[in-house]
Amino acid sequence: MTAQFASTLPSSAMTPPPGTVRAATFSGVEATPTADSLDAPTPLLGVPFDHITRAKLKAVVAQMIESGRPHYLATADAGLLLRTRKDAQLRQILFDTHLLICDGPLLEFVSRSLGNTLIGEISGAKLLPVLLEIAEESQYRIFVLGESETATGLLTEKIRRTHPQLDIGKHHYSPTSTRERDREEVHFRIQEFKPDLLIVAFGCPEQERWISAHYRCLGVPICIGAGSPADPTSRSQHPNFLHSTWSFVREPSRTIRRAIDALAFGCDLAGQFWRLLKQTDDLPPSAALAAQESEDRSVLIVPERLDAAAVEESRSEWETLLDSGKPVVIDLALTKFIDSTGVGFLMKLRRLSREKETAFALAAVQPSVWRTITSMKLADFFPTGDTVKTASEAARQPQRRSLWLRETPSGIALHLQGEISTSNSEQAFDSCAELLKGVHLDEAAEVDLTRVTFLDRTGIAVLMRLRKLALRLGIRLKITNPNPAVSTTLRNAGLTEYLLREASPPAA
Asked: Pick the residue with more confidence: 313 or 240?
């Protein structure tokens, strides 16, 4: 690396790990307010479902709209939950929703078996109708976004028939479009109308992916998916049984794979069910959690049982735990049993910590508790440490989103880490651009995505801007090693081939 390039490194790049040079640091998980008063969610295989009454939903909606910040509400049935078994990105999307409601009798039955009733006054099928009633009552503005003009018109007219007082805007757009102009027009139409509620009807899971990638920059207080209203001109006329039989005859291997996945899904749920039913007669009754404050962290000490009673008895302690701004460590050294409510409680704290930009980790997790967390597919969502001190260090680590520089025989490699999203995309681009501007014309640059865990639309835009910058500077640039979740994001955006192809300036 030349002296000219070395001189562009920031002063913070002085203590790199072995074999690398730290070049820049950018941080941030966007803070958006949520209803902290919501009860702890109930997890099913790593997906946190909320239970909410009509009165509380109305209060939550008012709070979200009054805040003016973007929020994402969703529903999920057994089919969508099944998809998350192999799709870590979709599971992350559902994990990060501000409110997730269960839909369907199968999940209701499973939740009852686990000791929690997920479907009460508001089920997944009722969420959107109730939101529309609240919108009409409070004179909120609605915008409908569908994948075709026919589908958008059908849904809009259906809403107008039942809620004639609503002010409704609409637009249609294909989520698979790769044209930046199309995406810009969608954003312009929505932001020009200034809706309070955005309804996206792309079908599952396309709408979940699209909303997750776009809702932060749209500025709409509430976004929700509505499925895909059927187009009468394309609806199948075959009964379900005949349609299923035809699908099996046409694609038997695909049908068999789905059956195997469904069986594995059932086994996973049975495993979660069995682990939560283990006898706990030898443990003392539930006790309250204890909070301890130190100069550099807040610690919540959990007793031997972490269940609904323990969570409720300690509400005054943990509701204010994340407001101090210090790293929060949940000390589980004493905990021998955790039920679905206890796991949901940890998930709620994890979600709130991300929204409030507070570092969070679990300390001294006992094997029995960790097996329960693992059985729910949640091991990747909790930073951990063997002691409170090491957990505190692990809690801070996810807050640092760093860019690392490595020299290669042909030039340099920039290693991005963590999440690249709306909250830190500009910092990510500026840091990379500063380094690219120091590369000589006879050198090549590589952007390595191995450690990137999440990429939204603005993160994709960062990669596109870096390609264009490299071409303008006259240097070769290649984007490499996206993990499966990032690869799925690029594929859904239709940009895999474009972004992973080497950008080479024209020969002189």
From this structure: 313
